[in-house]
Every structure is written in C-alpha cells, then in structure tokens.
Amino acid sequence: MKSSKAFDEVILYLETCIINGSEIDYNEISKITLSPASLFQRIFIFVSGVSMSDYVRKRRLTLAGYDLRNSDISALDAALKYGFQSHSAFTRAFKEHHGITPTEAKKSTAELNEYFSINFSDMRFIGGKRIMAEVKKIIYKEVPERLMVGLHQETSFQDGGKVWRDFFESDTIPKLNTLADSKCCDDIAANDGIGLMYNFKDMLHFNIIIGDFVKPDTEIPEGLFVKQIPKGLTVQIQIEGNNLGEILESAYLLITEAVEKTDREIDHAHFYWCEVYTHERYSKPLNQGKRVAIDYIVPIKPPSAQ
Fold first, then answer.
1. Domain named HTH araC/xylS-type: which ranges (predicted)?
2. Which one of 27, 104, 110, 255 has the lowest number of neighbouring Cβ atoms within 10 Å?
3. pTM
C-alpha cells in the first residue's frame, strides 16, 4: 500500500460522504487502500490527529457554517444536508465546534472555526496547519533483536504527556541505570528518554513503554515492563522543528513521504513507533532556546516483501 496515494483517495471518498451526508463505508476504505480498514485507521489518525469519523464531522460542521453564514439556508435544512438526525443534535455539535449557535452563524460577521480538507500530496498542511518541521537525516539500518524495558501504560494521544511525567517521577530511571552494561544498541544516541508506541487500537488508544533498549538475555529488575523487539530493517529519521508540538504533529507525514521517495514501505503488520530524545539534538538545543530534533525509528518491510 502506497500511503500517499491511498490517503488522497480516501480523502476524496470522505469528502463525498461529507457533501452527500452519507455514512462512511469501511468496506470501501478497504477497497481503496487494499488493506484492512483498521490498519489504515492507524495511518489516518497519525496524519490528521483525528479519526475518520471525527474528520467527517469537523468538515461537515465547517461547511454547514459556511452555508449558514453565506446563504439563506435554515439550521434545520443544514442539519439534514450534512447528515444530522435532529435539529438539537446539530445545534449541540455546531456550538461545540464553532463556539456559536447556528443562529449566530447567520450573521455575516460570524467567526467560524474552520477545519480544512487535508491534502496529503501537498504535504505542507495537516488539518489546515502549515508544516514547519523538516527531515534532517534518513538512513536504513538492520537492527538486532532487543528488549524495550521501562514504564508501561495504555494511553492516548491526548494523555501521552502524562505518561512521560509519570516516568520521570517514578523509580524507573534508577532501575534502568542498573542495566547500564546491558544497554544497546549502536544506533541509539545518548538520550534523556525513549518512547516506544505500539498496538494502536480503536483509533485513539495505544500502548507505550518509556525506557531503554537492552540486550535480549538481560535479567530485568522487578517492576520494569519488557517487550521483545524483533530484528529487522528500520528507517531512522531525524526530524527538526521549532518546538516539540511542531514535530509531533507532522512526523508521520514527513516520515511516510521520505520512505516512499526511496521506494520503501513501512511495515504496518509489525508496526511500532519509537521516539528518541537525544542529548545532542533535543535536550541541549531545547535548553539553549534553539530548534530541536527527535530521532525516530520505524520498522520497514524487507525488499523481498515489497
């Protein structure tokens, strides 16, 4: 599956659903992407930060706002046009999205919360926000089998920051320090933290381990979670931005674009997402008020499987 082409075709399909008020047919998503819809959902939420259903809802409310402000359409007709089951449900959703009621939106001076269509081919916007981060380095590297050990939680994109706070406030770091002689590998630079995310499910939640990589035969202290990471080909990319949020918002698009330009494919069947916050490229420039970079590691399909 070529993510950029599939994403653009999915967006065209969703925009059709938005305009005609129809429900998303996930079987159609599978046909477009030539993959299970649940697999493509992982890609979509990385790209847009929202689920496909939330994307459709935000876009419908945006277009409904335009209609109300720029024409004589009634709130009830706008609700029906964009697939809402009742006037009251539309009014609640509209006010939640725009911060004003449909009646208030009829004024020519009404300020709307616009959610723009995503253009994956353009690659410079995500949900209407300009991408300012950039790829600084990309290499492909075979990595050995290793263990990821540390603090484990199931979390969400919204609550991910809390897990990092828990990590620094827990006894995880002292326990990891006892494994100094077993840490690996030569592809991991000195850092202040590694986050490995996997098992993305129900379009919002995933598992995360914050800790470090160690050799497979390492004896793990009690209280540390362990996940085996198989050997295989990876892409290792440094992405630089003005701040953390700027990088996190655009990382998946930038990585996907970089991988596809080199005729490689991300291995979504064995997918994990690893972020390395190095001393040299993240912590040091952060303290100096400079642009920062995060090192990413993502599994890649071997050439024979592409």
1. 8-108
2. 27
3. 0.63
